[in-house]
User: Fold this.
Amino acid sequence: MKNESLFEALSARARSESPPSVDVASRVIAILNAEQNRIERMAEKPLLWLAAASSAFAVPAVIVAIMVYNASTGPLYEISQAIAWVVQ
Amino acid sequence: MYSYPSNMVLSILAGRIVSLRAERLLVEFVYSLMDSEFVAEDRQKTNASLAAEREDVRLSRQGDSDAYTRLIKQHQSHVSRMLWRFSRDRLVHEELIQDVFVEAYLSLGSYREKAPFGHWLSRIATRIGYRYWKQLARRGETESFSLAEWDQLPGKSPDDIDPGQAADLLHRLLAQLRPRDRLVLTLRYLEGCDVAETARRTGWTKSLVKIQSLRARKRLEKLFAQTGKGLKE
Assistant:
């Protein structure tokens, strides 16, 4: 077939074509760095939320603990003061 | 002029033949020695570059960007040559090359080092190029092709045609086919791959490549037969 042989001859001719020269190294590395940063940011996010939640629980817990400590140690302190006065 | 008895002529002739044979054998032996030295030298160089490449792959897996830059610089012209068959638009071509190296980096974990890194990249490049063609086909974007250009060719000898012009014409002609047919014909004819290489690059079996080549050639013949009816212009 005439067209087919022409197709084959053109293909052989096209094989000797040289493609345009390219240098994509810096762009590929930039894309990969951006991707890496995005992944790291995504990975850090749950840790941030965990830290915020734990501090939100921790602050009231510390306040309550101080109040309880004061309430529980106050009468004892007064009793010890009273005992010291009687002994004198 | 000397005249020799016939038995003496025969003995001289036989001796000459023997010496010629010995000479030829000696020359062949010397050439084979030289060849083996060159082959050994080439093999040493190849082994050294393969070892360096493996080391770069190992370092890249650990996140060393310099090592991956070396790999890109080493293979980008090869990948560029392959993807120039998939898109002749310079911007798209560069984007496709970038995609190949980004995808290769993200799947470095699956590279088993059974074949050279370049072979593995060529599979990824073929997959990405094919995916790009399928996207174009889904969007219905077909590159223009004028039959007048093809009709003008028989007057010219293929050797007189510029390789770029020939590649461009074939690229647009094959764009009229379905991506699957286009892929197999591009690899077999434009890239000059044999059945085994086409199978390796597409991930198809050898028998599928043969069947697909046959079908694609038939569709191409049909396309040529439509000359009178006209193609998409």
Residues 25-87 of chain A form the longest helix (63 residues). The two ends of chain A are 128 Å apart (CA to CA). Chain A touches chain B at residues 1-4, 6-29, 31-33, 35-36 (CB under 8 Å). The mean pLDDT of chain A is 85.
